[in-house]
Specification:
Blueprint (H helix, E strand, L loop, with lengths): L2 E4 L2 E4 L10 H16 L1 H25 L1
Antiparallel strand pairs: 1-2
Length: 65
């Protein structure tokens, strides 16, 4: 497989006769698969965890300054 640039996106050439997929296309495909597999509640949970982590980091930064 050979990598090459195509309009600013990285595309990996697959086996002969098949079209490659850009990194963006692969990410979109993976995101749709996760959405279909895990559902809305999963995104609510990880959003809550991310928000909590940000709050903790802000508080840690304030206590150092």
């Amino acid at each position: 497989m050979a990598d090459h640039e195509e309009k600013g996106t990285r595309r990996v050439e697959p086996e002969e006769g098949r079209r490659g997929m850009t990194v963006s296309e692969a990410g979109r495909k993976g995101g749709i698969a996760v959405r279909d597999e895990r559902g809305h509640a999963f995104y609510e949970e990880i959003g809550r965890k991310g928000g909590q982590k940000v709050r903790e980091l802000i508080e840690r930064g304030k206590s150092r300054g």
